[in-house]
Design goal:
alpha+beta; five-stranded mixed barrel; 3 helices; elongated
Amino acid sequence: MLSRRNLLAACLGLITAIACAQLGRWQLRRLAERRQRNALVMARMASPALGVGGVPAKAGVQRFRRMRVSGRFDFDHDIALTGRARQGAPGVNIITPLRPEDGGPAVLVNRGWVYSPDAASVEFARWQEPEQATVEGYVEELESPPAASDHSRLAARSWRRLDRSIATSLPYPAAPYVVVALTPPSGEAHSPQRLAPPPLDEGSHQSYAVQWFSFAVIALVGAGILIRQDLERQRRDGSVG
């Protein structure tokens, strides 16, 4: 019969193993979600670029769609998306409305990254490109506005995250998404550095899953070893007695 100490060791080992196994399964689910996302990104990035009217209006099916739009940049309404590091350097992304040639809502364009010592402020005039432009990139959806106590807007032209308040802050209608420009910079000396396409890596979920399952096995094996050692000690003590 197992002693109370052995029963406690068995329960702790089993509980720990179950918890670790659940964490391992969670990491596998995250891996599956990442692979599904990567497949979606590859399919949408490989599709032909759409015009403004071809982008689905329904939220959830816009993201990663390739898009091409021609028009005029409205540099008077540039905004800085703050806190955007690049290779360890602080900076911001510059978001500029583009007024389509054929009319309709403006399209917010993420023109890329520029260095900013405080990762918040930037001299917008320094980073202007030719006003007339054709931009090709992929769509990122704007988030829902945060709670009233958690503001995205830090200053008149500085925002810390992309939400729909940006589109509604303009003096004219704007589409509820941002186009991340992939077209090469114009060649101007001070063009922002374009952002890379969406990453397709699988992250560390698989290695984390292996670690958690290993911890589960270690917990069971460790509890078994402790119980066996205690039983052997009991037998030795009994034989001596």
